[in-house]
Write a structure and sequence with these properties.
This protein is α/β, with parallel strands linked by helices. About 55% of the residues lie in helices and about 15% in strands. The protein has helices at about 15-25, 45-55, 65-85, 100-110, 115-125, 140-150, 165-175, 190-205; strands at about 5-10, 35-40, 90-95, 135-140, 180-185. It is globular and about 45 Å long. The two termini are about 20 Å apart. The mean pLDDT is about 95. Bound molecules: thymidine-5'-phosphate.
Length: about 210
């Protein structure tokens, strides 16, 4: 039985998820009982896999390869970071986790036939580290993509996908948000301040603080 709490922030491109995670990091700065991480990445190996996955140069990557690389990065993160932290009673807050794979690879890539395989391999990869809570920042794709374009810091392979792809990702999020023990869908079309207030309230509720 793992003692710590595992909270995941999720959302489509331009949902403001990274900003919200940064705000939580500031809010809990100096609190050693909270470990922040991200997916894909969060380990040396995972960050290398992340570069490969996000690079526009990886345009030949097949969907099978993409799916397995996300799972490989997750396996490394779970074993190296998440499982030890939860076992030690720490709280883990991750920027993305398994719900992203359902939203992007199953829905975005339109590979519904891979869902049973993902569920089976996912259990092996997660090794009992099932999130206690998923907070999904729900953004209308048109709004999110406009924010991404304004950031002007280069597009990843996923940012550059079609509007149809991002609409399917959103559908996946909304249909599967309940895979964790607790979930909340928070509208991210509103201001960062409003989203931040909701996220803070939810995290405090989940942590019982
Ligand atoms: P981000 O950290 O900037 O959100 O970039 C990660 C990208 O990877 C994002 O476009 C979503 C995508 N992704 C998947 O397609 N599947 C996954 O399982 C995960 C974790 C991320």
């Amino acid at each position: 039985m793992l003692r710590g709490k595992f909270i995941v922030l999720e959302g489509g491109e331009g949902s403001g998820k990274d900003t919200q995670v940064d705000r939580l990091k500031e809010r809990y700065a100096g609190d050693d009982s909270i470990v922040f991480t991200r997916e894909p990445g969060g380990t040396g190996m995972g960050e290398k896999i992340r570069s490969l996955l996000l690079s526009p140069d990886s345009k030949d990557m097949t969907v099978r390869t993409e799916l397995l690389l996300f799972l490989a990065a997750r396996a490394q993160l779970v074993e190296q970071v998440i499982h030890p932290a939860l076992e030690a009673g720490k709280t883990v807050i991750s920027n993305r986790f398994a719900l992203s794979t359902i939203a992007y690879q199953i829905y975005g890539r339109d590979r519904h036939e891979y869902l049973p395989l993902l569920q089976e391999v996912g259990e092996f990869v997660m090794n009992n580290c099932t999130p206690d809570a998923y907070l999904v920042l729900d953004v209308t794709p048109e709004v999110g993509l406009e924010r991404v374009a304004k950031r002007n810091d280069g597009l990843t392979r996923f940012d550059a996908e079609t509007l149809g792809f991002h609409r399917r990702v959103r559908e996946g999020y909304l249909k599967h948000a309940a895979i964790g023990r607790y979930h909340k869908v928070i509208s991210a079309d509103v201001s960062l301040g409003e989203v931040s207030k909701r996220v803070d309230e939810e995290v405090a509720y989940i942590l019982g603080t």
